[in-house]
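Recall the central idea of this unit: under ordinary conditions, the amino acid sequence of a chain determines the structure it adopts. In this exercise we apply that idea directly, starting from the sequence alone.
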Amino acid sequence: MISTALNADQQRETTAAVRPNVLFISMDDLNDWIGCMGGHPQTLTPNLDRLAASGVFFANAHCPASSCNPSRTSIMTGLSPHRSGLYNNGQKMREVLPDADLIPQYFRNHGYWSGGSGKILHYFIDARSWDEYYPAKETEDPFPPTLYPDTRPLSLPRGGPWQYVETDWGPLDATNEEYGGDWLVSKWIGDQLGRKHEQPFFLACGIYRPHEPWFVPKEYFKPFPLEGIQLPPGYLEEDLDDLPPAGKRRGPNRYFAHIRKEGQWKQGIQGYLASIHFADAMLGRVLDALEDGPNKDNTIVVLWSDHGWHLGEKQHWQKYTAWRATTHVPLMVRVPEGAAPGLLAGTKAGSICNQPVSLVSLYPTLVELAGLPAKTSNDGPSLLPLLRDASAEWEHMATTYLGTPGNCGISGRDWRYIHYDNGDEELYNIGKDPYEWTNLATQPEYAAKLAEFRAHVPKKFSPLIEPRISSLPALAWHAAEVKPAPPSKPDGNPFNVFFINQRENPVELFWMDSKGHAKTFGLIGTGKTKTQQTRPGAVWQIKTRSGKPLGHFKVGDRKAQAAIPAN
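Accordingly, the structure predicted from this sequence is:
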């Protein structure tokens, strides 16, 4: 006969006295370069380390996607990218998922006050999901005033129109308060933590650094003198030799080559370390406010990063890969004893979990901890078994999606696998090869391991949902009487720009070649839109049918709309 009696711990966890508060902290573009993760020997992160030591530190956590928008969308909706169809930064969350309840809204639906500050979603706030936000939620701009250099670029010259304008770094002669930015975020969050609330709260704190640009007050650069900067431990010059074609295409990019050409590699590492140190200090302000305020004994604390970052590993700079440098992220969870209906015993300080987990699990985990009704649409298993016992059995793997349907990286306990949409594969024994220097996918003795991981690749991927033209960034219109059309200097990968004719008559579209000669690309009818493939740095001139120049557009580094004004 099977006993159905509950033990003392189980009885405690089935009885909720109060609803816990949730402090939900994100850091942007933070890889494993923190002390407790050992990613770089010079990093200084005392506050991240103290938070990790105070609860459960997930040492094998991975992001749901390899760029900000799909990763944050997945975390905040509880939906995996392969189910939602949101795979990249160019898509718009509310166009793809118009009815999804984000975590703060779900908690609001169940009696919580939800507030936030800083970057939680991809460059918008989603005002309808929050009670209060700083900056004001109606602005849909999550960034408070931030000090930047008067003259830019400061350190890294732009290599061409293909380069993201924020890829730059350097110290600022300013105090934290003068700098603003994350200091203002931490102040607003600290003010909320320092007062009693009539309702339980869900409070989101979006610390933007170490996202580019790596400009922070000079005091955070001082611990990292340039002459002592060490290169990334995971860098190996010949690391691409054993990659399949799809992997080799993902590896070397122009950023890393340009940075090395300009002699800025160590300066970039210095800027990243300084920005992490600054972000850690802002985290310390938030943690101190919680500890010194009235909410410390009933507030769950969760900290995560949306994805990692390459600083030369695989000859790559930035993110957008399925390698561990991008997928492996910090995740820390602390639950006070007696606070959470789902875990009244709380978490055990100093617990380290080495099981593979995905951040898509955060939504169902918080819902279960708070004793709220389960949200059946959530993907990802709740992490509650691992919060109870960090060494518990765990049958799941963590999947990171990559840009377009069919591409993903899968992380197990000691192994990692990458599957590309053309069928190319990579396989790594992380226990022996933590930097993924040796691809084992082509070696026959690992056929069984390959088969094990292939079985975890989704059988179906939702199609990528393109953004509406109206939601794309708008190119600036340069009227002909103000400035003549210059020659094109195309440099970078192709993408589409959508030319929209708002005039009462048809117009003609011309591409300006490198010598300034105009080459026609056809008419655009009144009220019509023409889709044109182009490249960064290209110049497109608009003329009347009689040949009179009206103006031109200069293409930036991404897909855009180009509205030809009525007058």
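The chain has two domains: 32-394, 470-564.
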